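can u pls check wat happens w/ fe (iii) ion
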Amino acid sequence: MGTIGTKIVGTDVKELIELFNKALADEWLAYYQYWVGAKVLKGPMRKAVEAELIEHANEELKHAEMLAERITILGGTPLLSPKDWMEKTNCGYDAPTDPSVKKILEQNIKGEQCAIMTYKKILDKLKGSDDQISFNMIRKIMEDEVEHEEDLQALEEDMNMMK
Ligand code: FE
Ligand code: FE
Ligand code: MG
């Protein structure tokens, strides 16, 4: 880690690293939930929903990448084992045991809403700090999560109009 790069953070770096590791756990679980959901999906609008789930999976993976990189720059270590994901997660994991499009959309919307709330809390914390780099990163991730919720709710709305 760079000495000055860490010093300008001006906030409790340890606490920040812990918050980012918890978010990292969420991102990996979200990635897998979308990825495996896209594999098992069944029902109306399957192709359209599958495409969106795959796109979101890739974006969650990108979020994990951003968080891990920031954790490293701050002098921390990204979670090293998948077993840590279930321990540290804020939003948990919803296994797509019911593969219907309706249920999978529901589960992932719930996940996105939790993600938005989680990042909102982190963002509020960073507002008062000098760490504008972390602030901008979390703001960017939150922007994606807001878009994810909107994408999934739009698909849900379309699906409900088919009845
Ligand atoms: Fe994400
Ligand atoms: Fe998301
Ligand atoms: Mg999308």
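The pocket of fe (iii) ion (ligand 1) is lined by residues 27, 30, 60, 63, 115, 141, 145 (CB under 6 Å).
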